[in-house]
């Protein structure tokens, strides 16, 4: 089984979010980049398929050279090789189109992407990719088993989960649950050394126009101070929630 | 040319999010000088959608579509959008909507923006505001394609009633086979889900152990709320992963979010930031959550929560 894991290069979850150039660009100043957490669960699950079922695992990112340290980290975790499509990730559709070319050229059976990236949260690349290449698709995937060309997956739904049967070729939008948080792998020194020697191929992009364009950003309005209620005066809280906030 | 909406129902009954997307679509239709056509699957009382601005409902009655299937539902919506020559299609932010929307967007060659929080600021160029960076910011995004798909954040627009009646037409599009088959669904039917909830009661490590969740569940029951938890609580296995809310868990956009024994890490606050009113109960007045909350009680949850339950029961009885 040939697995491709899509890796988004995203600001660390603790990053302060700011914008520059008249609020038209994300301010990367002082921002640490990491593998998108949802993708990290998928990558670890892919390593399981590699170790238990002899799958090959490649990782891919659509982005500029600045994303290479993130791909190297994925190699240090254990992926066999990395591909970087040399074009900025302008929107979900353009990224999906680039990924579709990589999947078709590489003949991948299983594509593991994250449910969503934690920067733009579009939750659209895996589904669009599946739509473009005509593969089966499972979103919000929290469990995946593959047996030959058959797959069994669990999807998180609102208020529960559903188990589905499907088959390769398959794209999943993965998240926590594919593996447990405690099973996530941290690159060790040997992995980091080996990653330096693993292939990281830069491929030039195919023609793919973006369909959307972020024109400006804004931050939420600053919040007023918290209204403290005395722990011995719960009636006051009920009153505020009813009469002032009008939420009960 | 009408605005098309996907209206979700469960066991025949429309979800609140369905009424909200119709309300939203009506606002977009007014901006663009057109009307709203809703697509519903096996729903009862389709005429209800007229009260929120739909002038037509395309009702798909198909036993084969009793269970949601993203590819099949997307195909039905795609056929409807083509029949209606719709330029804008609106879906919600439910798990199912987010599952089908990218497939639908590819099928219609449409640009898709999810997590939209307001009516378009402009319809030419078509520009919408949506949350980004896990609610730490908003982006204003132009959709440059002829057809647009909008994913509306829950509880962001609200329900807007309008005058008018919806005509109901049976709709039987051709439905493709799907390579994904649902084998079983495991869903608590007696509990409201975090996505659908107007109120969410959430517990953190301050509750000391899973055995202390009884009062959280009781408080949720009194309020008709969903229960949720912080990341450490789900990592420790005190509560199921499905309850984890925050940046890497589920987003919450409820009207009221009550955080009990949760300090308020930046990742947690990002995930719950779209909730309208936030209440924190914590022993530590320095907890970061107090900076993000609207109302706060500095106190021991084990004393405050039982009192709050008692007061709310009395309130409910008085206002019943």
Automatic annotation (TrEMBL), chain A:
GO molecular function: electron transfer activity
Transmembrane stretches, start-end: none
Keyword check for Transport: yes
Stretches of the chain forming a coiled coil according to its record: none
UniProt domain Electron transfer flavoprotein alpha/beta-subunit N-terminal: residue ranges: 23-212
Keywords attached to this entry: Electron transport, Transport
Family per similarity comment: Belongs to the ETF beta-subunit/FixA family.
Protein name: Electron transfer flavoprotein subunit beta
Automatic annotation (TrEMBL), chain B:
Keywords noted in UniProt: Electron transport, FAD, Flavoprotein, Transport
Entry keyword annotation includes Repressor: no
One term of GO molecular function: flavin adenine dinucleotide binding
Residues holding FAD: 205, 261-268, 282
Presence of keyword DNA damage: no
Cofactor binding mode and count: Binds 1 FAD per dimer.
Electron transfer flavoprotein alpha/beta-subunit N-terminal domain span: 3-194
Domain of life of the native organism: Bacteria
Cofactor(s) the protein needs: FAD
GO biological process: fatty acid beta-oxidation using acyl-CoA dehydrogenase
Family: Belongs to the ETF alpha-subunit/FixB family.
Official protein name in the record: Electron transfer flavoprotein, alpha subunit
Species this protein is from: Winogradskyella psychrotolerans RS-3
């Amino acid at each position: 089984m040939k697995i491709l894991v899509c890796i988004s290069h995203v600001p660390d979850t603790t990053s302060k979010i700011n914008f520059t150039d008249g609020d038209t660009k994300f301010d990367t100043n002082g921002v640490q980049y990491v593998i998108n957490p949802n993708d990290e669960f998928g990558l670890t699950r892919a390593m399981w398929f590699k170790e238990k079922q002899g799958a090959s695992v490649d990782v891919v990112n659509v982005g500029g050279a600045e994303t290479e340290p993130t791909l190297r980290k994925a190699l240090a975790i254990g992926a066999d090789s990395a591909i970087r499509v040399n074009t900025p990730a302008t929107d979900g559709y353009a990224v999906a189109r680039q990924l579709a070319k990589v999947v078709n050229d590489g003949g991948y059976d299983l594509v593991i992407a994250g449910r969503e990236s934690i920067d733009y949260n579009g939750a659209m690349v895996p589904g669009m990719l599946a739509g473009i290449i005509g593969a089966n698709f499972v979103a919000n995937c929290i469990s995946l088993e593959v047996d030959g060309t058959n797959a069994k997956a669990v999807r998180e739904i609102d208020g529960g989960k559903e188990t589905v049967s499907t088959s390769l070729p398959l794209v999943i939008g993965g998240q926590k649950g594919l593996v447990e948080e405690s099973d996530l792998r941290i690159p060790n020194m040997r992995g980091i050394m080996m990653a330096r020697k693993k292939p990281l191929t830069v491929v030039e992009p195919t023609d793919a126009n973006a369909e959307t364009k972020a024109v400006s950003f804004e931050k939420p309005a600053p919040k007023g101070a918290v209204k403290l209620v005395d722990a011995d005066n719960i009636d006051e809280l009920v009153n505020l929630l009813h009469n002032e906030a009008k939420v009960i | 040319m009408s605005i098309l909406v996907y209206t979700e129902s469960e066991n025949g009954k429309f979800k609140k999010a369905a009424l909200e997307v119709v309300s939203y679509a009506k606002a977009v239709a007014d901006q663009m000088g057109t009307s709203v056509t809703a697509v519903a699957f096996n729903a009862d009382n389709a005429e209800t959608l007229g009260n929120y601005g739909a002038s037509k409902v395309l009702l798909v009655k198909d036993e084969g579509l009793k269970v949601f299937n993203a590819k099949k539902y997307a195909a039905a919506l795609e056929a409807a959008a083509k029949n209606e020559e719709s330029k804008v299609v609106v879906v919600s932010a439910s798990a199912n909507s987010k599952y089908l929307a990218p497939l639908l967007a590819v099928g219609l060659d449409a640009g898709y923006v999810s997590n939209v929080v307001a009516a378009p600021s402009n319809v030419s160029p078509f520009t919408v505001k949506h949350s980004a960076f896990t609610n730490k910011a908003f982006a204003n995004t132009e959709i440059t394609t002829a057809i647009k798909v909008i994913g509306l954040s829950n509880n962001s627009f609200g329900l807007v009633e309008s005058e008018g009646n919806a005509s109901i037409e049976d709709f039987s599009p051709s439905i493709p086979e799907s390579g994904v088959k649902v084998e079983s669904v495991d869903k608590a039917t007696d509990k409201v889900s975090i996505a659908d909830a107007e109120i969410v009661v959430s517990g953190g490590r301050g509750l000391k152990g899973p055995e202390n969740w009884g009062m959280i569940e009781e408080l949720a029951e009194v309020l008709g709320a969903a229960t949720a938890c912080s990341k450490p609580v789900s990592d420790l296995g005190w509560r199921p992963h499905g309850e984890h809310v925050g940046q890497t868990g589920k987003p919450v956009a409820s009207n009221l979010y009550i955080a009990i024994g949760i300090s308020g890490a930046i990742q947690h606050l990002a995930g719950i930031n779209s909730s309208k009113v936030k209440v924190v109960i914590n022993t530590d007045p320095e907890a970061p959550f107090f900076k993000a909350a609207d109302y706060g009680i500095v106190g021991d949850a084990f004393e405050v929560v039982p009192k709050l339950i008692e007061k709310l029961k009395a309130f409910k009885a008085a206002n019943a």
